[in-house]
Each structure stands twice: as C-alpha cells, then as structure tokens.
Amino acid sequence: MSLLVVGTVAYDSVSTKSGSRENAPGGSAFYFSISSSFFTSSSLVGVVGSDYSEKYFSMLEKSGVNIDGLEKVDGETFRWSGKYNDDDFNQRETLETHLNVLENFNPTLNTSNKNSKYLFLANIDPKIQNQVLDQMQTKPKIVALDTMNFWIDDHQNNLSSVIENVDIIFMDENEIKSFTKKDNIITAAKFVRQLGPRIVIVKKGEHGAIMFNEGDIFTAPAFPIEKVIDPTGAGDCFAGGFMGYLSGSDDLSPQSLRKALIVASVMGSFAVEGFSTEKLAQITHSDIEDRFRGIHGMTTFEPLNNNDTLPKRIS
Ligand code: AMP
To answer: How far is the CA of 12 from the centre of ligand 1 (A)?
Structure first.
C-alpha cells in the first residue's frame, strides 16, 4: 500500500561526543522515508532550496523513495543544528533553526499522493500538516503524526487542530508531558486519546516505547546498542519503521500493531549507530529481520499457566 510523508528535508549540523557533521542530509521526512522504504513504497512531499545537492535527491531515489512531491525552489534549504550532552544522549540543545524555504511552503499534492492509503505527517509546521490533510481525496486508512517541542511550545492551537484528525500520534516522553502538562505518561496518553487519536505511542529513548491502543498497552524495548553515535532522526526512523511495516503488511490488527512497534524500535536502533543516515545506508533487509528476531528472543518468557504458580515463601 502507498505511504505518503510530509515533513522537513534539511541540512543538519550535529555534534555529539563521537564527532560532528556539518550540513549533513537530514529532516524529518528525509529520515522517515529512508526508513519506511525498506518495507513499502513511500512518497515524500516537502521543499528544499536551490542549494540542495543533487546527490541527496539520488540518495532518496536509490532508497526507492518517490520524490515527485519534493519541490526545489529559490532560496536556502531548511537548516537545523544541535549539540548532544556528552554524558547523556537524551539531552539535546537546539543551537539554530532556520526555516528558510519552509516559511513560504504551500504543498500541492498530485493525484496519486491525494489517494495514499497511509499518511504520515512528520515533524513540520502544523499549518503545513493541516494543508496536506485537507487535500486528501480519499480518507486514508491511517493518518499518523509526529511533532516536537518547537511546535508544541509556540503553535499549540494549530497543532491541536491537526491532532483532532489523526489516528496515531508519536511523542517522546518530554513532549507528551509538556503538551498535556501532566507528569505521568499514562495520564498524559489518556488525555491525548480523548482529543482524537486512538493510538498514542510514547518514545522513551534507550528505555523503549509504550503504545496505548484502546485498552491494549504494549511496550517495546530499545534494541541494546553499545556505541551510540548520533541520535538525530531516531524518532523519525522509528516512525518510518512503524508506518512502513503497517503500510507494507496492510494489516491493522492488534498483533500487527505490536509487530510494527518492534520494527520501529529496530529502525531507531540502526539510526543511532551513525551520523545522518550513514548506518541506514549500509544495512540490508535481513539485518532488520535479525534484530527483530533478537528482540523477540530477548523479551519472551514462559507464561504463568493456569496451574502454574510463582514460588511462595513458606512461613
Ligand atoms: P529527531 O532527532 O527525531 O527529533 O529528528 C531530528 C530531525 O528533525 C533533524 O534532521 C532536523 O532537521 C529535523 N528538525 C529539527 N527541528 C525541526 C522543526 N522545528 N521542525 C521540523 N523538523 C525539524
């Protein structure tokens, strides 16, 4: 099934304790589409400036991403720079955000994109997320959304109006707490579900993720990684794995949603092992399957059957 993503395509300058990159390819839609394309046909809607290198268009195309909807306009590409805390990869400081060509971006979807069965509104101005949602001709089977503090803090009203119209929302622990002003993620997820999305996925970095789906709560661990290089884009690759799996399998059963969360965790684990999409460019589909099996092995244990008991102290 077709998967459409709208989001940022960027030049990122990132520094972590493992090194740094200047003007590396990044952006929420860039990461998402490269990750999801392992599983399904993805199309990208976004904008870049005249300074955007041909080699990154080719990189997307070689990964199988349809870039008919990636506009190139006069001006500079969206730029973001950030620095990670040397002692804690969960602490990131945004140094600069230059919206550039994103400021005047008004996406126009082609007929094929207007009829996509799966839609992902990646992290971008909620106004643009709404414009894409409004242009859909047939209601997608699933609309999912991701965002970040930049939009939560200053565009709360626009963001809330998109959230009302999506099926699935991805937020990290800090984002959901700040958006809902609640300090417990279960309470926060309940609050968000009341706004509209029936599935809320809370990402907790190296501590995995929790999915709240109607009454079903499912947790996925993060795949243990010994050397994290750069966590930038891990959330987008995570969402790419999740949506890519759903779109590729076209199965929305609770079991399939659980598998999608494991695939998400696997894709996030590859993303952090290199700057930009450097690691993703080296992996194969069977590397992904190996980690999927690995997580299964790490998390299975025998159930407590009817006649089984746990040891009990005899007093
Ligand atoms: P993540 O590490 O999952 O938060 O994703 C980081 C990616 O998001 C980087 O590649 C940035 O280019 C992109 N990004 C940073 N700030 C924004 C923003 N305000 N809106 C959309 N994308 C952004």
So the answer is: 9
Report domain extents, the chain: 2-298
Q: Which of 194, 232, 208, 310 is nearest to 26 (CA)?
A: 232
Q: Is the CB of 35 under 6 A from ligand 1?
A: no
CATH class of 2-298: alpha beta
**Which amino acid would we find at residue 99?**
L
d(CA 215, CA 158): 28
Q: C-alpha distances in angstroms, 277 versus 3, 18, 79?
A: 20, 15, 16
Does residue 148 come out as left (phi exceeding 0), alpha (psi in the -120 to 50 range) or beta? beta
What pTM did the predictor assign?
Answer: 0.96
In angstroms, rounded to a whole number, what is the distance separating the alpha carbons of residues 136 and 150? 26
Ligand 1 pocket residue status of 121, Cβ below 6 Å: no
What pLDDT, in 10s, does the model give residues 179-213?
A: 999 999 999 999 999 999 999 999 999 999 999 99
Q: Which residue has the tokens 């392992």?
A: 38
